[in-house]
Amino acid sequence: xxxxxxxxxxxxxxxxxxxxxxxxxxxxxxxxxxxxxxxxxxxxxxxxxxxxxxxxxxxxxxxxxxxxxxxxxxxxxxxxxxxxxxxxxxxxxxxxxxxxxxxxxxxxxxxxxxxxxxxxxxxxxxxxxxxxxxxxxxxxxxxxxxxxxxxxxxxxxxxxxxxxxxxxxxxxxxxxxxxxxxxxxxxxxxxxxxxxxxxxxxxxxxxxxxxxxxxxxxxxxxxxxxxxxxxxxxxxxxxxxxxxxxxxxxxxxxxxxxxxxxxxxxxxxxxxxxxxxxxxxxxxxxxxxxxxxxxxxxxxxxxxxxxxxxxxxxxxxxxxxxxxxxxxxxxxxxxxxxxxxxxxxxxxxxxxxxxxxxxxxxxxxxxxxxxxxxxxxxxxxxxxxxxxxxxxxxxxxxxxxxxxxxxxxxxxx
Length: 413
Ligand code: SF4
Known about the structure:
By secondary structure, the chain is an alpha/beta fold. Helices cover 40% and strands 16% of the residues. The chain folds into three domains: 6-30 and 77-168, Rossmann fold (3-Layer(aba) Sandwich); 44-75 and 306-412, Cobalt-precorrin-4 Transmethylase, domain 1 (3-Layer(aba) Sandwich); 170-303, 4-hydroxy-3-methylbut-2-enyl diphosphate reductase, catalytic domain (Cobalt-precorrin-4 Transmethylase, domain 1). The protein has helices at residues 34-45, 48-55, 77-92, 108-116, 150-159, 169-183, 197-206, 220-232, 236-242, 253-256, 270-288, 293-296, 305-316, 334-344, 398-412, and strands spanning 26-27, 59-62, 65-69, 98-100, 120-121, 140-143, 162-165, 187-191, 214-217, 260-264, 297-299, 324-328, 349-352, 363-366, 375-378, 386-392. The relative contact order is 0.14.
């Protein structure tokens, strides 16, 4: 297990000669092909109709439909960079096998696009015949935007392959926090989904340090349960059963909740992350007194601004006379699901992955918030004139969003 935090790993910058890449080195910057990939990038991910909506102050009226686009939507800086690096990797290493440890981002279109260009997946839904055991020093492995756990990183380093690190800086920021908590003997309480790749990676950073502990809480309800245990104690066996999948090995709630530091999965509901952090601060004040808070509680703002901006932009659409809202993004995309939650609180909202979900003017196949499976809803599209709110998660290409608008307009024809 490495004791070398990711921020201090050896870095290779803009060397354009493949022979300059030493085994096990990590490329974290462009490889000099930014210009060359632009036309592919535009073609694969951009959309003329979305550009038209933006140019028209985020509103487009055609054939009786008025589309209101959220002012922050779609690709964030982290996803943009991650995909650019993946495309540069394809250009730079045309004769090598190129792998991704898992999905590069949570969007089926983007993953299938990279797969079609020859990138293979070592795990996750797009994995085919090959896995981590098949990687050799001759290969190139791309690390996705939301990170990779320490164990995988160590395995790849031992293989001696070239790695292209596309991990987002906002995720690295969270890692720095939990690593500092672990060094200081604080347990990291991570607001997130314990099974999400980013939270798995973040948790693994903690375990690099002797005695490092973590606990992942999904929402305020779980935070309240933990806070109750901190203040009043409780049934340890029940606690450990409840968080069996979400805490570090040999976690002891009586011992490991005395000093806590807050962190979050970057794509969670930002208002909930902030509320949970405040709530735990109050809990530690109640337990140990205001004068002792510093000895028992740590918190730093690790909310990703892109996630927060997209959530705020949905709230701004509240002022529009919307008949319904379409939120586009991968069904496993955490940030997209949270956009659905926010929108669903004030307007009928449909979460679809692609325009294929718009089956006909009568039927839509979509995933309701909080469910895993899609359903088909009848009579979803109101008669014209109608106002439709639209937005997309941080991993959704504009191309995908634009196709949905075009499909709705095609129903009219
Ligand atoms: S959502 Fe935030 S943390 Fe995730 S890739 Fe985008 S900018 Fe980075």
